[in-house]
């Protein structure tokens, strides 16, 4: 099992796609489109509770990709992530502490099993706490208002990202940081210039006229940096 791995987010892996149920599309439909668009990090987010059959099928879809490694991250539910074959679990600020989740993972998985635990952060203090607890990466946000997130933390904007990333550098913290929260394609360049590792996106892909092409465009824009 891995904690902070600098190779986790590179190439197509610097885009994390987050599912969000909308009319006419299931989470599995969305995952298929994101994978077809080249995404290598999928987060299954089901805010009313993770459906185990969906999680199991999502893990199967990710594992069936032959040309690259596609990792499935289950949001909020470490039990579902461990039992249904996911590669990672993402924990919010009000979820189980990261170090407690690692204790569960170590009890269930082989020592060399690839598994990662991400943590949500809104401040530099949040990042410090997550790093102490062994987080593999940080989802830092929100960048702007987003309707896909309940109980939204204070908006960061570009200056917030610049300040927090700079504080991490000064403190010698090198954990991968993904920007998240209402991000559009036009936001990629200024956000990547703040020094974040990658971008997490939901609505800008799901609501695009062509979600597969939108995924490709996000990956291309991120990989300029």
UniProtKB/TrEMBL annotation:
Keyword Endoplasmic reticulum in record: no
The organism's place on the tree of life at top rank: Bacteria
Comment on bound cofactor: Binds 1 Mg(2+) ion per subunit.
Record's catalysed reaction(s): 2-[(2R,5Z)-2-carboxy-4-methylthiazol-5(2H)-ylidene]ethyl phosphate + 4-amino-2-methyl-5-(diphosphooxymethyl)pyrimidine + 2 H(+) = thiamine phosphate + CO2 + diphosphate; 2-(2-carboxy-4-methylthiazol-5-yl)ethyl phosphate + 4-amino-2-methyl-5-(diphosphooxymethyl)pyrimidine + 2 H(+) = thiamine phosphate + CO2 + diphosphate; 4-methyl-5-(2-phosphooxyethyl)-thiazole + 4-amino-2-methyl-5-(diphosphooxymethyl)pyrimidine + H(+) = thiamine phosphate + diphosphate
EC class name: transferase
Record GO biological process: thiamine biosynthetic process; thiamine diphosphate biosynthetic process
Cofactor list: Mg(2+)
Known EC number: 2.5.1.3
InterPro entries in the cross-refs: Aldolase_TIM, ThiamineP_synth_sf, ThiamineP_synth_TenI, TMP_synthase
Keyword Magnesium on entry: yes
Keyword annotations: Magnesium, Metal-binding, Thiamine biosynthesis, Transferase
Residues that bind 4-amino-2-methyl-5-(diphosphooxymethyl)pyrimidine: 43-47, 75, 120, 149
PANTHER family hit by this protein: THIAMINE-PHOSPHATE PYROPHOSPHORYLASE, THIAMINE-PHOSPHATE SYNTHASE
Role: Condenses 4-methyl-5-(beta-hydroxyethyl)thiazole monophosphate (THZ-P) and 2-methyl-4-amino-5-hydroxymethyl pyrimidine pyrophosphate (HMP-PP) to form thiamine monophosphate (TMP).
Entry similarity comment: Belongs to the thiamine-phosphate synthase family.
Protein name: Thiamine-phosphate synthase
Taxonomic lineage from the root: Bacteria, Pseudomonadati, Bacteroidota, Bacteroidia, Bacteroidales
Gene that produces this protein: thiE
């Amino acid at each position: 099992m891995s904690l902070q791995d600098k190779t986790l987010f590179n190439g197509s892996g610097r885009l994390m796609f987050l599912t969000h149920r909308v009319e006419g599309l299931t989470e599995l439909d969305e995952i298929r489109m994101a994978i077809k668009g080249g995404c290598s990090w999928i987060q299954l987010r089901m805010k009313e509770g993770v459906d185990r059959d969906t999680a199991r099928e999502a893990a199967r879809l990710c594992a069936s990709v032959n040309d690259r490694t596609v990792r499935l991250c289950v949001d909020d539910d470490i039990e579902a992530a461990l039992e249904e074959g996911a590669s990672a679990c993402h924990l919010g600020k009000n979820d189980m502490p990261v170090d407690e989740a690692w204790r569960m993972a170590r009890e269930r998985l082989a020592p060399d099993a690839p598994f990662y635990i991400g943590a949500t952060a809104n401040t530099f203090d949040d990042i410090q706490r997550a790093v102490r607890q062994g987080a593999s990466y940080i989802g830092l946000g929100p960048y702007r208002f987003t309707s896909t997130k309940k109980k939204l933390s204070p908006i960061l904007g570009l200056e917030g990202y610049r300040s927090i990333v700079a504080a991490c550098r000064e403190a010698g913290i090198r954990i991968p940081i993904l920007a998240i929260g209402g991000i559009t394609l036009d936001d990629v360049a200024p956000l990547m210039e703040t020094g974040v590792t990658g971008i997490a996106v939901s609505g800008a892909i799901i609501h695009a006229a062509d979600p597969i092409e939108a995924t490709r465009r996000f990956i291309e824009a991120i990989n300029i940096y």
